[in-house]
């Protein structure tokens, strides 16, 4: 009889511990504290004028590079940040500088079947280390989805879209890489971090 009581008590303690952990996790993920007002104002400003990317940690007001694409598309790379997890995150803004709504070229997704199956993306982007003579492709999750902005097909005139791409990190000695995206010009980008 005392073994049943002990087992019940243990299950109750485990359930209580799990519930407390989940409550703390949910409270930690909530984001309506008073300090959250600062990041909202640059984002709101960029939505109002439609041309300036928001300034985020590791990003400057001046883009690291501007790449011109077809149909008036312009990609401004605002940061290329090396993360401790062994990857590089490239952030930027895709803008339609053309006179009419631009259809996002399917070539931006690249030509790999696994990436194309997941819809329009920037999965065709690569980083090239010219010294090490290596090319780094966009990372994928365990289900084959590219770790990049996805799900867009058109961009209206003057509209902007914040974009990101994640790549495996080149060796720490590599501080500059060539960024390439199908249908766009290429550019040299400095990696920070």
Automatic annotation (TrEMBL):
Residues 41-62 have a biased composition (Polar residues). Keywords: Signal. PROSITE patterns: PROKAR_LIPOPROTEIN. Residues 1-29 form the signal peptide. Residues 29-65 are annotated as: Disordered. This is Secreted protein.
